[in-house]
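User: quick one
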Amino acid sequence: GQNIDQPTEMTATEGAIVQINCTYQTSGFNGLFWYQQHAGEAPTFLSYNVLDGLEEKGRFSSFLSRSKGYSYLLLKELQMKDSASYLCAVNGHGQNFVFGPGTRLSVLP
Amino acid sequence: EPEVTQTPSHQVTQMGQEVILRCVPISNHLYFYWYRQILGQKVEFLVSFYNNEISEKSEIFDDQFSVERPDGSNFTLKIRSTKLEDSAMYFCASREGDRGNTGELFFGEGSRLTVL
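Assistant: Done. Structure below.
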């Protein structure tokens, strides 16, 4: 089976740093993706990890540990526009991308 | 910038009716997907399509659903005999392929289906 877990909600202050965790158990692993989804909109791609370690992309970084089935998304210098849901998705095997439940982040002034 | 386009943006239908949701994937992409998201819930995989056939489908994608690529650009999802629980946002997505890219999914803006 495939299972992906994320915290349901998080709150942080503008200008701060927040870490959103994701744990997964999948049959096979071809990569882990983070998406951002604003309310009522489509998910948009943020980052991709296939090897262990940290990938940095501007204010966003993503980390992967395949042995632990664990990833996190790090958002720095938070802005109000970062208020959104953050979705962890795993390409386990074949063409299937399985999404986690998403973490709703609220950025407060 | 190339994008995935979906029509209609919103469809209201009566229970038991058939609906067809349409998608135009990005032109050089090889893999096509349908996902659905019931309000307040997670994005759920329905089906993937490659080389003019279904490559994978989930348990949700039963005989009520079908997909088709009727020409070189469109990719459709047909839902027969809609039920109240089919009310959701349906996202089409495409991705380029497996070589020289991260393989991320590009999503359309979604088609909101409301079944009354």
